[in-house]
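By way of example, we now present a protein record of this kind:
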Amino acid sequence: MNRKTKVARLSILSNSILIFLKLIVGIFSGSVSIISEAIHSTMDLAASIIAFFSVRLSSRPADKNHPYGHGKFENISGVIEALLIFAASMWIIIESVNKITHPGGEVKSFAVGFIVMFISAGVNFIVSKKLYKIAKEEDSVALEADALHLRTDVYTALGVGFGLLLIWITHLNFLDPVVAIIVALFILKEAFELLKNAFSPLLDARLSDDEIMIIEDTIDNYKSVYCNFHNLRTRKSGSTKYIDLHLVVPENMSVKNAHNICDNIEVDLENKLRNTEVMIHLESCNNQCGNYEICEKTNRPI
């Protein structure tokens, strides 16, 4: 089992335990904010399960039917996770508004609820930190989405915990659904960011500006032996980055030298941007680029 799968499994285990604790305490105390946190953790569990299977599927090698691999399984899982968060947030808001308009009993067991919320925050902080570390090292959008879920759960659990403390001090029970709505709005913001990040690669959006700059600077390192380059295109599938471009070389340059230039550029790009596949299309300059100095350097060893 690879690192991505192991850490995804850890997220499933931690979320399962926290959901059980939050549901028991939420039902016993009558706190809608604690129950909203249980619903949030349930969505986190669903997201963790989706992430677990998506990283396993995305790790499959390319095959006859999927020559570019299975990386977009991770992006699809990110979109599904975002939609689940949207649904959970709307449910929390509806239930909270209903409790404000139709107030029920008082919130009970502040101490237990407070303790459970801070235990939840601590566990999720540790797990999300580990998830985020592996996500960055493996460039996994599914694990990054899962880490983002849990990191948000840290903030929302702390918010609910302090909300319970405030209710205990002030005896203003209407603060409980108000805190739940604030939690839901925070989760909605998280869902929007996640949806945007996960959906873009499905439309073959280009890489980030920083990554484009790295690509262009790397190619520029070889400008003394080629004429120019154009038609630079980039996209991403899961953790794999795809780069293709047209490289213009002097008309009389040997195939061997032109091939060596391409090999050197590809190796440099793959070293600077992990999980990268590069495709370079060679074109002949035919002395029409205006870079006559380069065109005169034909057949020099590379």
About this structure: The domain at 209-295 is CATH 3.30.70.1350 (Alpha-Beta Plaits). Residues 33 and 176 are 6 Å apart (CA to CA). Confidence is low (pLDDT under 50) at residues 298-302.
